[in-house]
Amino acid sequence: MQLLMAHWKKPKGRRWTIAWLLAGLLLVTGALLFLPYWMPTAIVYAPNFGKKADSLREVSSEQLDAWGINQQIQVPVGPPSARLSVWVMEPSRQPARGTVLVLHGIRDSKASMRGMGRVLADGGYRSVLIDLRGHGSSSGDWLTYGVVDSQDLTEVLDALDRQNLLTKPVGAFGCSYGASTAIQLAGRDSRIRSVVAVAPFATLHVAVHGYARLLGLGFVLPKEMIDRAVEVAGQMGHFQPSEANPLHAIQQTGARVLLIHGTSDWKVPSSSSQQLHAAASHHSRLILVENAGHDSVMATIQGRSKAEVLAWFDNPSED
């Protein structure tokens, strides 16, 4: 008792320091215990998890006109069943020179890709902006990192074809999650002749390990625990994580793939695009943008790299 009293008679500043250290230790310990349960959920839950398709609002016709969107359509896809929201931007001069699917990043929406859609439309292409499943105004519970998404997009191509909106050649433009999905789409659907992929991941496992390092978790969690979290996420989302593999897909497609990556990308390091290019050097090109990060590289593309992107779609693969 005397020792305890002696401790608490120590200067107030020191007592608070000890209290904060103990609280921090408890928080870290609790986080480490909780992470094996939290990580799979963080990996696989889509932004629209649990939302019914009818509850997802579309943009008003007045707003679409203001944004230069010519048509808004909904495409049922699946399994698993979902409804994708799609915007069509027509070029001012008809007929269109081709059709380009425009795909957003993770936890984002097609609205963020309007600028790129306009660049492509001004270049003569029909731009098709798509909310991937579980994003924006599209229904769906799970993020599948291109596995189910690429299957969905094949159905979108079919729907566009039925409505005479699939002017060939057909290409795909995507950033981050959308870039990886675009490569996987090309690997499964030969109608895609050109891809521009901005900051794609090479494989899902590599991407998750990269994010874990970014958050500081890679230094405290064993590799096996992170790999297990990815596998559990796949079980929850009903897909095989090993199939979220642009590195494999780029070797299966004859489409030309332009890879653009910032050298200061800490979310998805440029080594992913370097791997992809090395795996398909005969039908891909790599542009490394100095000092650009994951979120800033798109500004470069809509600026000084715009001509290179349009030129890439102007010369599709003839395979």
- How much β-strand is present in the residues? 15-25%
Order of helices and strands: HHHEEEHEHEHEHHHEHEHH
Instruction: Quickly give the structural class.
Output: alpha/beta
Q: How many separate structural domains?
A: 2
Amino- and carboxy-terminal Cα gap: 84 Å
CATH homologous superfamily title of the largest domain: Alpha/Beta hydrolase fold, catalytic domain
User: What is the CATH architecture descriptor of the largest domain?
Assistant: 3-Layer(aba) Sandwich
CATH topology of the largest domain: Rossmann fold
Read across the widest sheet, the strand sequence of neighbours is 1-2-4-3-5-6-7-8
> Largest sheet, if any?
8 strands, mixed
Number of strands: 8
**What is the count of DSSP helices, taking H or I runs of 4+ residues?**
12
Uncertain residue segments: 26-31
Helix content: 40-55%
Radius of gyration: 23 Å
Quick one: overall form?
globular
Mean pLDDT: 89
CATH class bucket of the largest domain: Alpha Beta
